[in-house]
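Q: Predict the assembly, please.
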Amino acid sequence: MHINVHGLSFSYGTRRVLHDVSFSAAPGELVSVLGPNGAGKSTMFRCIMGFLKAGEGQILIDGADINSIGRRALAERMAYVPQTATPVFNHTVLETVLMGLSGHIGFGRAPKAAHAAAALETLDNLGIAHLKDRGCMEISGGERQLAFLARALVQNARILIMDEPTANLDYGRQHSALERARALAASGYTIVTSTHNPEHAFLYATKVLALYGSRIVADGKPSEVLTEELIEKLYGIGVRLHDVPSNDGSKTVRICLPGGATAYNGVRGA
Amino acid sequence: MNDTVLQPDKKSYGARFAALALVLIFVFFVSFMLGRYPVNPADLVKILLSHLISEASRILPDALRDAFLNTFIIERTWESAAETVTLNVRLPRIAAAAGIGAALSAAGAAYQGMFRNPLVSPDILGASSGAGFGAAFGILARFGYLGISVSAFLFGIGAVLTAYAISGRSRRMSSILAMVLTGMMISSLFSAATSFIKLIADTDEILPVITYWLMGSLASIRNSDIFFAGIPIAAGLIILWLLRWRINLLTVGDEEAKSMGVDIVRLRTVVILCATLLTAASVSVSGMIGWVGLVIPHCCRMIFGHDYNRLMPASMMFGAAFLIVVDDAARLISASEVPIGILTAFVGAPVFVYLILSRGSENAY
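A: Predicted assembly structure:
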């Protein structure tokens, strides 16, 4: 499914957080949104999900405005993976995933065996079926992230919106989570995610969107638009990009090291 | 540390529900036999059955009634005093204890899920303090027995509706936070108003009645109360039971629930309405009975897990059994009645401390 954002603007009171934001994402794409804290990444996601009502502009899913699609129908097209926070109640992983099926479980009903089977299959595909009866408070942040991903996947929506899926995860889990996202995109999902790490965008994204001062300042392939100048502008820190061979030597990958021209000049001068 | 709690895959919830149901049935029947006038079990069963048959025959058309009554004939072998004690004294009391215990526990469980906080009790939005004020006002104005209950019920509902309406106008903070704050405001307002009524009330006649009423008691329950409070309580319990699985969706947060296609505002409104009906109806006939709505859902989470599909029915059954037992204690401990509101705190507080200390940090909250 395609998602198209046209001229999206949003203000909290008089403070403008998003200004004329436009972009699109297609099946197979993993769009990584970069930008400093407060640039409006989360606000943009909340507008796209319909949690916040856009001031101006349109958000279209396969050409249909999200405001014209009912909430339940929208949930069948687009699912949301929240940042991993510790839940208040200790639902088991299976009980958590079943909530993603709420559109199929009517008033006065409880999940049936068929629902549990669908949830278990999703857990199995993510390799966490063994966690089904563990409480969500008792598992690690990475496992909980997978449980939330399973809850989103079981909705059977083809667009996934993931707000900083790597926040709170350790180094290894960050990369396995992103690897998972890339595999999902490759299998036909449309994924929009946010990250604070430019290297994540180089390694996994098919497209980068840079938000700065409530506007989109770059939109394109990571290797083309994500330059040293852009990263310095976004994060206020000088960086150097280097092309190095990937581990298997089949291609080159771009890495980003902090400490830009100024810092190196200082070293040279000494 | 209890291993079964740590290994939920070995739980057999069906057996636990069966055990809880047996406990409930047991305390229900045994409670009829407790008290100064002895009723033997055989008579008790016959009295209850014949009462049930005569009540059931009333809803039948005339043509069928005689045939129905002739089919089920129970010989009157019991003394009439036993019948009076069972049907007019103990039945309303035990039924009220069961209904109010179930109502307060269900309301507590519902509010806890909705506010995503296991330490919330049914008075969070002001239902109890509103009802308390309504009763105090009714006593002061000499409304009479039923009038006091009606006044308590209406003020309880009114307090929550006011809190809900005010919080709905807030655009600056999350709706949950706004509701908690307006609930606190409404509660303290009505508590202050109740204090004011106590201040101006006649100290010989009115003040003791208000004070005793606020302590909570089932001693003065009559059959008319059962019908007055029974309808809203039954309605609230049935709707919350039907919504039991959907209440899970309130616990994950508004945005996540919306992303799963849930109409969160409608669901929350219905749950608030039910929990408020339950609380206000309970308080209006029993006075303030604290702790039940907080402690019972907490106990049930340990036995039945956090899924509201099981937690809601378990809380209703456990709450009913608990309040029947505490009310038995209230009428048996001493010759004069001990207000049940005092006993629930005496029982509830130590149980709560035990639960906090006996649980591991991460499995608890």
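The first strand of chain A starts at residue 3 and ends at 12. Chain A has two domains: 3-234, 237-270.
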